[in-house]
Amino acid sequence: MRPASLLSLAAIVALSAPGFGCGGASTSQPSAKPNKKAPKRPARHAVGAEPHRDARIGSYVSDSMTFDTSAYWIEGPAGVVLVDTGFLTPVALDLVERAETATGKTVTTAIVLHANPDKFNGTAALQARGVEVLTSQQVLGLIPAVHQKRVKWFGKRYAPDYPLEQPAPTAFGAETTTLEAAGLALTAHVLGAGCSGAHVALQFEGHLFVGDLVAHENHAWMELGLIDDWQATLDRLVALQPTWVHPGRGPSGGPELLTAQKAYLADVKARVAALGPQGAPDDARLKPVRAALIAAYPGYGYPFFLGLGLPAVWRSLAAADGPASGESR
Length: 329
What we know:
Layout: H1 9-16, E1 46-48, E2 57-61, E3 70-76, E4 79-83, H2 89-103, E5 107-111, H3 117-120, H4 123-128, E6 132-135, H5 137-154, E7 170-171, E8 177-181, E9 184-191, E10 199-204, E11 207-215, H6 227-239, E12 244-249, H7 256-273, H8 283-296, H9 306-318
Parallel strand pairs: 4-5, 5-6, 6-7, 11-12
Antiparallel strand pairs: 1-2, 2-3, 3-4, 8-9, 9-10, 10-11
């Protein structure tokens, strides 16, 4: 956890549940009072070299007020490409300024990997600077419903830094394609469901940017409960044989991050399935599963994500017609 001056655990839980993360199935609002100390500028950041030591790749990690979210930049011969846009307008501006300072080049393009506020909320701020913000047609179609919910939960808490107008990236298409940006050839892989209802993974040479499909050293956000779909999406990424994987939360690493995420999801599913789930989630029976998972993955961040994820997995396993997909993802 970060210092107490940022957020207490209870406050972060209130901000995170059920509105934050990859899922969008929940319709109830957080019960806690709005946070009146929303940041006006990022309180903490991490910018610098990742283990790959590729000078063309830069990383940016927001503070815990904005959920320790990782964004990236790729330096090309004719500019810079951002991967995701940040949770708040000041975060987006800080990200682009640091990328341009580090490279001495102008950010020309940004890619939104999936429909989640920490991925798309900086869209308008970047567009105002002349940055072209792109995503897939599938992700673009999910943004309106997700944005509407998140504004209800986060707009006042993070005023005036939370964008109230619906972000409007440009769709590059509905199929995997090669994007030419900043003098680079980037492959945008159009993927199905995982923690969101649709994803883009961006590939540049041996680098693969996967967003919240991988939560390295953190518990996964499983609000939709789509474990099988998520596993299938990860299989597609494994088949790409990347050298480096850059997650939406946690440090970058090699392809082992993909297999580790698969193993984590399989473990969660097996533990919940062992309860023989039927009907509505049984919180009393899920409580020891949550405790066991926290013990099994010591040091993993955001354990409170399990509070929404495990019931969602229960519902998926209990449903006779397959996993619950949620109305907004």
